[in-house]
Amino acid sequence: MEETERGVLKDGDPHPAAKIALKWIRDNYSYQELMLQLEAFSSCAIEGNRLSEILGETLRRLLNNEPISDRYIMGLSWYLFDNKQSEINEEVECGGCGKKINKSKMHPETCVCYECYAKQHLSW
Ligand SMILES: [Zn+2]
Q1: Which of 25, 44, 85, 110 is the most exposed place for a label (fewest CB within 10 A)?
Q2: Euclidean distance between CA atoms 93 and 112, whole angstroms
Q3: C-alpha 103 to ligand 1 mean position (Å)
């Protein structure tokens, strides 16, 4: 086999990384989260968003266990991966000190950061 051919997929051969992409989706999104995402895609698709049309149909197929080609899986998983990253990096404003901080550093049941929470609740 020629050196260049070894790195080329034959027609109809799925990309080996598509399996990893699919596993990543399953490991990082629950069925409920994917259903919510599908609803979001559907409402954007109605407004003519091309990306949502494609991703929505891919996700619908995935949830119904219908066959999907590798490039659609790769596209969907990259979108969802990027989504997760921005969720992780999302910044919110603390209701106490007003500082912009990473969402993960906010006290989950209040609108303040852990520092403000501690000041409000743990002072004596
Ligand atoms: Zn604060």
Answers
A1: 85
A2: 8
A3: 12
